[in-house]
Amino acid sequence: MSKTNESLMQRRTAAVPRGVGQIHPIFAESAKNATVTDVEGREFIDFAGGIAVLNTGHLHPKIIAAVQEQLTKLTHTCFQVLAYEPYVELCEKINAKVPGDFTKKTLLVTTGSEAVENAVKIARAATGRTGVIAFTGAYHGRTMMTLGLTGKVVPYSAGMGLMPGGIFRAQYPCALHGVSTDDAIASIERVFKNDAEPKDIAAIIIEPVQGEGGFYVAPKDFMQRLRALCDQHGILLIADEVQTGAGRTGTFFAMEQMGVSADLTTFAKSIAGGFPVAGVCGKAEYMDAIAPGGLGGTYAGSPIACAAALAVIDVFEEEKLLERCHAVGEHLVTGLKAIQTKHKVIGDVRALGAMIAIELFEDGDLHKPNAALTAAVVAKARDKGLILLSCGTYGNVLRVLVPLTAEDVLLDKGLAIIDECFDELA
User: The domain containing residue 32 runs over which residues?
Assistant: First the structure.
């Protein structure tokens, strides 16, 4: 009996807990660059990229070749037992790429959540303080500490009780929704007045462009004032670049466009082209605040994932993918804005590089987020052969994270499907 999506979904329901969500009732069988083929042989255009993991596309031949070569050497020793050069080489390259005119060191781990957890550990050890300020709409992971930092209860921490204490929430600036730079800075000052003295705050953590929160871009003037505020009070600034990093925004790290640098930077997702590696890069003096044995993990910085990440960095340079990122972003934004002119439900089309969002509202009213239409577009697009994602605090944002290696003809096909969906649904 041949496999079908329906039969596999039945097996999944019986074997996998319901807490592991699934956006599309599809089982992938194979993939290439920016397309995915399911178990029934149907091909889909991939505008999701594994949630920003495949900036270099599915199965990039140079990345696969690097992994295959590493497989002939070794797959695991645990770096804390027996070291290997790819780990060190990747750290050297990340140190050179993360913005900041200071000596850096890098820790490698396995997941984005783990990177954020370690960034907080490092900040606490370096400052002798425990508090952390995060922002509304933030997404930093699903582990216990990162759930506390994440600014969305449902579905991430619903039913789990209160998350760890010592975390305070400030407003993320968003002109579209009436939160100015002044408002956001004032909200941090309110934390200092109402909740915790600055001397009790180890770090402020921020996404330069919010991911799950809706792809809102932090204004440069806000980032500069945030940097000054941190310097004034001896607070470390953590840039969570898990989703924005590895070239998604048109620079290898989004903070390169913000006019300031962070003390600690987290990265993961696209850094290894689909293989699991993540990390924290920061000022050497802060990174060295924890004694030997306080950082690491059994699988942290796997030789295979390090080989993949080194290949990703080479591919970005050889194929000029940062330039391609801008071209992809401009191509898609132009097409989406043309669709917007026909449908007042599209309240905003925004992007930094190729990190693109379409925000939907009822009758164009910015006070009425349209989650129902957003979900309907995602489902209709799937029926037409396009994989999309939604996001946002109110679930009313469509996000596009297509591989930067996608051909223009594929981008146009995706735009045409989105256009059809709005014509039929809006």
Answer: 5-59+320-425
